[in-house]
Amino acid sequence: MAAAGIGTEVFSKGVWYHEVLEDGLAISYRVEKVLHRGQSKFQTVEVVNTKAFGSLLITDGLMQSSEADEYVYHQSLVHPAMTAHPAPKKVFIAGGGEGATLREVLKHPSVEECMMVDIDGEVVDMCREHTPFYHAGAYDDPRAKLIIGDAKAGLEGCPDASIDVIILDLSDPLDGGPCYQLYTTSFYTMCNQKLAPGGILVTQSGCAAVRDCHLVFTPLHNTLRQVFPHVYPYTVCVPSFCSEWGFNVVHKDEGAASICDGLVADGALDARLASRGLGELSYYDSITHTRMFSLNRPVREKCRDETRIMTVENPLFMCDTETHQGVFQGK
């Protein structure tokens, strides 16, 4: 017997946003209010308020982050890398137009300058106006240096060996998308040149559950291993992403302590967070860190056995933009 109210009739009430994740799989959100709808030079941009996840940022019909759990993603992206460095002063963010990555970086008091380069200034302006919870005033911090432009060109313009932490908060590598070249050996080689001694790089790495980690997460891990001596994969659950989400963090130096377990030994991680005034972060601490870096067996084995390498000539894509797309119903 079908549950009352569950069926096609449920979508006849109000406005719904459907995102087709792949052939045969979709997620639907009931839209309470459309906060912004526009077209930038590069993409369509929409912000909608939903019943389940609060505000959603949607670009080109694809959900990027949600008000309800963006802190999980952004704290997981930023704090393992930033905390692994003893005193990060110069930080570079590629992408991150919402401003939340910048917000988390600037929580570290040692930071003297954080350069953030995002290609779409209209997204930055829209987020400043309609979703201030993302940046929480970070754009007005004197340490923030916002540049609207190409992230690759921005990083190329930095002196060699000048950056303590590089954070790659880029759109997923999609077939037909603009970012796939920033997931390749040639780009990571350039990043390595820009890192100072003791430098650390972290990149968001796409879906990382047992059923989808092979799409980008494991080949990206192997690609980084071609350039850096130490690469540590980790994952978190971001409910609005409908998958375990992956990251890879790397050390430039051969003899560096393990970010995976060396950082938490003898209470070192919690002590370092406390010394920076970050002992009460809403998500990240030493226990969470241990969970993040404790990959399940299937994902560990796929990382171990991965042989594919992502290059400009032979890129890999997380999905096809012809099958991964979003649509509004009833707008």
What does this structure look like?
There is one protein chain. The protein is of the alpha/beta class and 331 residues long. Helices cover 25% and strands 31% of the residues. The protein contains ten helices and 13 strands. The strands form two sheets. It has a seven-stranded mixed beta sheet with strand order 8-7-6-9-10-12-11, sandwiched between helices. It has a six-stranded antiparallel beta sheet with strand order 5-4-3-2-1-13, with helices on one face. It is globular. The mean pLDDT is 91.
Output the structural class: alpha/beta
Largest sheet: 7 strands, mixed
Order of helices and strands: EEEEEHEHEHHEHEHEHEEHHHE
Number of helices: 10
Uncertain stretches: none
- Percentage of residues in strands: 25-35%
Structural features:
10 helices; alpha/beta
Short précis:
The protein is an alpha/beta fold and 331 residues long. Helices cover 25% and strands 31% of the residues. The chain has 10 helices and 13 strands.
Please specify the SSE layout and strand pairing.
Blueprint: E1 15-22, E2 25-39, E3 44-50, E4 54-59, E5 62-66, H1 70-84, E6 90-95, H2 100-105, E7 113-118, H3 121-130, H4 132-135, E8 144-148, H5 151-156, E9 163-169, H6 185-194, E10 195-207, H7 217-225, E11 230-238, E12 243-251, H8 268-275, H9 286-292, H10 297-305, E13 325-329
Parallel strand pairs: 6-7, 6-9, 7-8, 9-10
Antiparallel strand pairs: 1-2, 1-13, 2-3, 3-4, 4-5, 10-12, 11-12
Helix pairs in contact: 7-10
